[in-house]
């Protein structure tokens, strides 16, 4: 999620979404899962999974605290360290795949564990940046298949991780989109997600995960107005409606296939549980103030890593990133992702 600071109160959506929620979640259809021997991981989406495709335009980026935990310097991951991709790869018994931008340099051997096509700031549709949308990212994979970088056997033994974390919605608001237009936008976004998932499967990928929309109402950019103490309940309505439609779309896609290739990684439930319980369910990871980011701007208009015209830091950094669930205004810390994976690991293993 690139930014949520333009999100407005959603009280006017309450009545409509309350009616829509009466539709309920589509029932799950249980299939006999066939365990796969995976050899490749393909990643699509945004900054929650990008491991180096996006080159920040800020000339001060090399001096920012991003990557302070791993690898020790900024390298394109918008966290203090590893992000969801690295841990998902470990669960699958694979190494984190190389970013797409280095595929030409690394060649077939470099792509032996797959490719990460995700770009931070991108969305399902155009988000105002000159970045590849998810559709374009899938085009990249199709091109690599066409030029024989990957064989049909490679694709048939692969897993896809797809992340949608809200950039389409923040971009819509940044262009003065109306509250009235939000419901049609959510419908369009989720419909296109369904098209994209189906297309990835049509290329031969056997298992495809899609992230539920996380609790945007709880990201520090939103909770800063309450001194990082309270989530925004009205914004939660938007998130719930997106996830309602996503669940129904995935359920429908699985009904249309014989091998139930699609499943949801429920970041929403994972993040909310961590925030509400101040840590993971085992109690092995604790976050005393889970809504408080480790790194954030000291005043309005500044962000983690920003400096003023004299090069003076305009952000504050906590002493121990492992003590924080959120790294910056919108992204988890490495420790935050580890905590979230305690919720997601069973779902991934169940479906592979």
UniProtKB/TrEMBL annotation:
Signal peptide (UniProt feature, chain positions): 1-26
Domain of life: Eukaryota
Transmembrane intervals: none
Gene Ontology BP annotations: lipid catabolic process
Pfam families named among the record's database cross-references: Lipase_GDSL
GO MF assignments: hydrolase activity, acting on ester bonds
Keywords (A to Z) from UniProt: Hydrolase, Lipid degradation, Lipid metabolism, Signal
Family under the similarity heading: Belongs to the 'GDSL' lipolytic enzyme family.
Protein name: GDSL esterase/lipase At5g03610-like
